[in-house]
Write a structure and sequence with these properties.
Blueprint (H helix, E strand, L loop, with lengths): L1 H7 L1 H15 L23 E4 L7 E5 L20 H8 L6 H15 L20 H13 L4 H9 L12 H6 L12 E2 L2 H12 L53 H4 L19 H9 L1 H17 L4 H13 L5 H19 L2 H7 L10 H15 L6 E2 L1
Antiparallel strand pairs: 1-2, 3-4
Length: about 400
Amino acid sequence: MEKYYKESDSAYQDRLRALQLLAETPNLHNPNQYTAMVLQEKDSPRETHILIRGDFLKPGVKVSPGVPAVLPALENQDRSVPNRLDLARWLVSEENPLTARVTMNRLWQHYFGRGLVKTSEDFGTQGEKPSHPELLDWLATEFFRQGWSLKAMHRLIVTSATYRQTSQVSSEQKERDPENILLARSPRLRVEAEIVRDIALTVSGLVNPQIGGPSVFPPQPAGITDLSRGNLIWMTATGKDRYRRGLYTFWKRTSPYPGLTVFDAPTADETTVRRIRSNTPMQALTTLNDEVFVEAAQAFALRLLKEVPGDDSARLRYGFRLCVAREPDHFETNTLIAVLQNGVNQFKTNPKGARALLPEYASNEVDPARFAAWFGLARVMLNLDETITRE
């Protein structure tokens, strides 16, 4: 009877799985519970051959370590055969033109949506030629001159006149240069998947800015991990860990976090150099209805009611600036005020529904009807394309 009760009690089974997961988690404070892989060169390096038709049972011509002849040669020190350390030194050598160019091309792609070499995943003879070869050369040499400081190069690009142009595009520009290859305007593109979530948490004031630490389990729809390999138990985080930045979200290849994949985050099955951006209705539904964004909208509404004493117009301007970094125009102001007033009128006749929307941590000083109306307006502002678009 006791066995049947335990097997049929879902709460007991959840606690049992949690205890099993805790027992399997290594204790990082005990060095005897975990190991690390290390590399060591063999005294006699093994022979390597070109495999005929890729078959490891059919070795072909013997090959030795080396780099393309068009690039500087590998310099090995006191060894007959170059090793990994020699390759590492070659990668960051001042004589090697490749590393700095590839890195700066990817950095440029991050800010402009398109690299100076469009095929950033293929920097060889099969890829496209750079649109601005002299600019790419200069960025590469400047990167080296700055001591390989990515921080310095980020600052250089975002403070440049090219990046600080307006992103508004005329019909003539759109027809002549739809991909902005000529850099006649600033880029306008949706931010990466991880940053979409970070924006909502930051605007609402919920974001936990802690740097480093283990991965966390933010809220996600029920049943996502049920079919994952290994039967992952998704222990939804509580407290401050619930609002860590998207960078720290736990990632399982057979069950990736849906709040990231819906915004085109790669699945980690293979290395991805260039993310493809899509525009789907599911993305709008996520920023409107996902649990993370609903909680962010609740906190955003409370923030506006508490931080901006005064009329609704002042609150609206403050909230709009937090989301899109500009003041709303006349049409936007009238539209959003109408949405707010409609919400107030609706929830005054439905006080029970208004109270149901209040989070547990809300104080009794907040009028439920006004909060519910501002909660609806907060969801609208977090759902704007411009909120998650860099321009």
